[in-house]
Amino acid sequence: MVVTTELSLYPLTKDYEGPIIAFIKKLKESIDIEVYTHSMSTYVKGESQVVFAAVEAALASCDGTVSLVMKTINRDLPVEGGFLEF
């Protein structure tokens, strides 16, 4: 099943930007998913098992304590336009 997942990572530290960028870069290592970064969140699309495995790997790579908010829908949403490149 193809899913679209919106992710928002909140590192519980003053220096939050680096861990967020590292999290997104880790997600992008997975070649079997699509990753779109917006200024407030990141969208990941692909087969559900692959998406969840990529999110798990990215979360496991985080240093320190973080909070991750995930919203997932069980379809391919057209979220491609207007996103940032990392």
Q: What can you see in these coordinates?
A:
The protein is an alpha+beta fold and 86 residues long. The protein has one domain: Alpha-Beta Plaits, CATH 3.30.70.930. The chain is built from 2 helices and 4 strands, in the order βαββαβ. A 4-stranded antiparallel beta sheet has the order 2-3-1-4. Strand 2 (34-37) and strand 3 (42-47) form a beta hairpin. The radius of gyration is 12 Å and the shape is globular.
Q: Describe the main β-sheet briefly.
A: 4 strands, antiparallel
Gap from first CA to last CA: 27 Å
CATH architecture: 2-Layer Sandwich
Number of strands: 4
Structural class: alpha+beta
- Could you tell me the CATH topology label: Alpha-Beta Plaits
Overall geometry:
globular
Number of domains: 1
Poorly predicted ranges:
none
- The helicity comes to 25-40%
CATH class annotation? Alpha Beta
Mean pLDDT: 92
Element order: H for helix, E for strand: EHEEHE
Radius of gyration: 12 Å
Individual helix count? 2
Summarize the structure in short.
The protein has two helices and four strands. By secondary structure, it is α+β, with helices and mostly antiparallel strands.
Labels describing this entry:
86 residues, Alpha-Beta Plaits, alpha+beta
Protein topology:
Layout: E1 2-11, H1 17-28, E2 34-37, E3 42-47, H2 48-60, E4 66-73
Antiparallel strand pairs: 1-3, 1-4, 2-3
Helix pairs in contact: 1-2
